[in-house]
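TASK: fixed-backbone design
INPUT:
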């Protein structure tokens, strides 16, 4: 394996974190992250942001907000 460098690691970081790169690229990026504190920090930020967004997407809207949004959508649909 060889170090892929910061440019490639950062360019492919999101795909790496979602396991969407081939095994060779995954290993190269993993190796780079193990040895590059700056890219490790960027990966930590990306993982944290992904986790926060995923948690937020699992939450349901309050009933009042949901009712307001649905009423507005119905109103828009009726006017078209």
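OUTPUT:
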């Amino acid at each position: 394996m060889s170090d892929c460098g910061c440019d490639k690691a950062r360019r492919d970081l999101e795909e790496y974190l979602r396991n969407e790169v081939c095994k060779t690229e995954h290993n190269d990026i993993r190796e780079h992250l193990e040895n590059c504190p700056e890219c490790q920090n960027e990966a930590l930020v990306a993982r944290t942001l992904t986790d926060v967004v995923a948690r937020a997407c699992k939450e349901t809207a309050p009933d009042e907000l949901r009712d307001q949004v649905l009423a507005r959508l119905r109103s828009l649909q009726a006017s078209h």
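COMMENT: The chain has a mean pLDDT of 91.
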